[in-house]
Amino acid sequence: MIWNPEKETLSRDQLSRQQTENLKKLVRQVYGKVPFYRHKMDERGIRPEDIRELTDIVKLPFTTKNDLREVYPLGLLAVDRDKIAEVHTSSGTTGKPVVDAYTARDLDIWSESMARTLSMGGCTAADTVQNAYGYGLFTGGLGVHYGARRIGANIIPISGGNTRRQLEMMQDFGSTILTCTPSYALYIAEFAAGNGIDLAGMQLKSALLGAEPWSENMRREIENKLHLKAYDIYGLTEIIGPGVASECEEQHGLHLFEDHFYPEIINPETGEPVKPGEKGELVITTITKEGTPVLRYRTRDITFFLPGACVCGRTCRRMHRLLGRTDDMLIIRGVNIFPSQVEQVLLRIEAVEPHYQLVIERQNKLDRLEVQVEMNDELFSDEIKQLEAVEKMIERELHSELNVHARVKLVNPKSLPRSEGKAQRVIDRRQLTE
Amino acid sequence: MIIQQISVFVENKSGKLHEVAAVLAGENVNIRALSLADSASFGVLRMIVDKTDIAYKALKAAGLTVKISEVVAIEVPDKVGGFAEVMKVMNDAGINVEYMYAFVEKNQDNAILIFRFDDVRGTLAILKDKGLRMLQAREVQSR
Fold first, then answer.
1. Residues of chain A found within 8 Å of residue B38, distances taken between Cβ atoms
2. Which of A377, A384, A407 comes nearest B44 by C-beta?
3. Which tens digits make up the pLDDT trace of B24-46?
4. Residue B43's beta-bridge partner residues?
5. ipTM (interface pTM)
6. B42 with A387: CB under 8 angstroms?
7. Helix and strand numbers, DSSP H then E, in chain B
C-alpha cells in the first residue's frame, strides 16, 4: 500500500520543481545560519544565489563523516537551539559521535518517511509491529516506533535481545511485522528451531530489516525460515536514521524518499557524477531538514540507480541493494568498525605488535570477529594460562574500543601482512555479495 | 641439577608442528623428551634436547618464538607407585607444580619425571635430602 499517494507518485517534473525550491531554500538557510557551511561555500566562491537549478548542486561542497565529527556537538545547527525537539547520535565507536538534532517538523518528516517504509512492507493500522531495533540514542528503535505510530499500528517496543521473550511476545500478541537487523532475524529463526517453537504457526507476514549489509541468499533463508516476506530498508544517522530508502512490495531496489533526501551517485575518486546507471558512491542532501541539515553527504555506500519506473506506482527513484563501501568500514552485529581502530588498540598495549588480521565469519547466524595478533618473545610464556591471560587482556581492550566482542588468536611472529602496500588485513567470509 | 628446556610457541594451524620438527632434524638435534600443551587456539611445545644452544638458535632463525625455561628431572623406578612416591614428597613439602611430563628410559627400568616449579632454586633446596634421585643435565640430555 502507498502511504502518501500524493507525495509518492508525483510526476518527475513536479518532484524536481519541488526539490529545486527546497534545495534553494536550504542553501540560503545554511549559508545564513551555519558558519561551517558558509565558510566551505565561501572557500569555493559559491553564493546561495548561484544555486538556481537542481544540477547546480554539484557546485556545493561535500560533507564527510569527519566534518560531522569536527562540528560535534551542534556545529551544524541551522535553527535556534530552543527549536530542537530530540537528539540522536551514532555510537561514536570511531571517534566523536555524529549528532542528529531534530526539530518538531523533522520528527514529523521522519515519522512520514518511516510510515512510507512500513507501508511498503505491508503495515496497516490493523498490524502489530514487534520492534526489535534498539531503543535509545540509536535511531533504529524510535524511527520505526514513530512510523508505526503515524500509521496507527499496535507497537510492541521490545527492543533488541532476549530472544525467548521475543518469541513469546510474537506468539502471545500475534505480531505481524518484525523489525530488526537481518542477522538477528536469522538468529531468532535458529533459536526457535532449536527450542521446538513452530514459526509457521505465527502471524508474521513481513520483516523490515536493515542497519547491516545482507544478501539475496540471506533474504531467501530468512523468508523460508520465518515464513514471511523480508524487506531491505536503508538509512543512516547522518541523514535522519532509518527511512531514507526502502524496498516496496516488488522487492526490487530501494525507493529513495527523494522529496526529502536528494540522492546523487558520484565517482568516489573524482567526486564527479557518474553516467546514468553506473555504480558509484551514494551522496545525499537533506533538502527539507531543519535541525542539522547535511549538504552532499558522502555515505561511502556503493550502489547505482535502477532504470525505469517501478510497477508499484511510486515515482521516486530506486537504488540497488548496497554493493559495498568505498572505505574499509565493516559492520559487525550492527556496529561499525574500522580496521584502523584495532591497530590503535594494539599500539596502546605494551609488548604487543601493531600487526593484525581480522577474520569475520558468520557462525550460528551471528557475525564473529577474530583478531589475529602476533606472538613475540616478550609476550611468550611456556605456561598456557599466562598466554590465555594475554589473549583475554587484548580481548578486553578491544571490546572497550570496538563495543563488540572479538576473539583474539595468537599467531606466529612475522606471519601477518605488514601495513605497507596493499596488505590484506581483513578476511570477510560472510559472503554477503552473492 | 637444573635442566634447560626449550619451549616453542605453536600456532594452531596445520603444518606448524612439522615446521618445528624439521628445523631440529635439519640441525641434527635429538629430542630426548617432549610434551605439547594446548589451548583452543594455540599450543606450546616443550622439549629437552641434546644440543640446547644449537636448537634454540635454529628455531629463532626460523622465525619462531622460543624460550628457555629451567626444569628439574627426577628419576623413579618404572613400577606401580613410583610416581605416587614422588608426589607424596612434594605434597608433604607443600610444593606447587606448574606443569610436568614424563618419559620412560630406553633399556632401563626407570622413568624420568620433568617438573616445572614457580621457584626452581627454592624448590630444589627444599627437595634436597628427601631421598629423590634428581638428575644432572647431562644425564637427561645425552643418554
1. 384
2. A384
3. 999 999 999 999 999 888 999 99
4. B10, B38
5. 0.85
6. yes
7. 5, 7
pTM of the model: 0.72
Of B10, B41, B56, B57, which to mutate for an interface test with A (greatest number of A Cβ within 10 Å)?
Answer: B41
H helices of A156-306, where?
Answer: 163-173, 182-194, 216-226
Domain A332-428 CATH (choose: 3.40.50.300, 3.30.300.30, 2.30.30.140, 1.10.10.10): 3.30.300.30
A342-397 pLDDT per residue, tens: 888 888 888 888 778 999 998 877 889 999 999 998 999 999 999 999 999 999 99
Among the residue ranges A153-157, A418-422, B53-57, the one predicted with the least confidence is A418-422
Strands (E) across A339-421 are located at 356-363, 366-374, 406-411
CB contact under 8 A, A388 and B38: no
How far is residue A114 CA from its own chain's centroid? 14
> In chain B, which residue's Cα lies nearest the Cα of A409?
B41
CB contacts, 8 Å: B64 with chain A: 412-413
Domain shared by B112 and B101, yes or no: yes
Lowest-confidence segment of A55-59, A121-125, A220-224 by average pLDDT: A220-224
Q: Residue A306 phi/psi, 5° resolution?
A: -80, 140
In this complex, which of A377, A391, A409 lies closest to B65 when CB atoms are compared?
A377
Chain A, window 368-397: residues with a beta carbon less than 8 angstroms from a chain B beta carbon: 375-377, 380-384, 387-388, 391
- The CATH classification number of A5-327 equals 3.40.50.12780
Could you tell me the CATH number of the domain that includes residue B23?
Answer: 3.30.2130.10
φ, ψ dihedrals at A423, nearest 5°? -65, 140
How far apart, in whole angstroms, are the C-alpha atoms of residue B13 and residue B83?
34
Closest Cβ opposite residue A412 in set B38, B64, B69:
B64
Q: What type of residue sits at position A255? A: H
Query: What is the span of the domain harbouring residue B118?
Result: 70-141
Per-residue cell: A204: 508474521
Question: CA triplet A212, A214, A216: central angle to 5 degrees?
Answer: 155
Give Cβ neighbours of residue A141 (< 8 Å, ≥ 6 apart): A131, A133, A134, A135, A157, A159
Helix, strand and coil in chain B, % to nearest 5: 30, 40, 30
Question: In which residue ranges of chain A is CATH 3.30.300.30 found?
Answer: 332-428
* Angle value at C-alpha A218, between A329 and A173, nearest 5 degrees: 105
Alpha-carbon gap, residue B79 to B114, rounded angstroms: 17
Closest by CA position to B101, among listed B25, B48, B43: B48
Same domain for B94 and B77: yes
Residues of B in contact with A377 (CB under 8 A): 65, 67
8 Å CB contact of A382 and B42: no
C-alpha A94, offset from chain centre = 15
A413 vs B13, B42, B63: nearest CB: B63
Continuous H helices in chain B: 16-26, 52-61, 82-92, 120-127, 137-141
What is the number of CB-based contacts under 8 A between chain A and chain B?
A: 55
DSSP secondary structure code for residue A63 in this structure: B
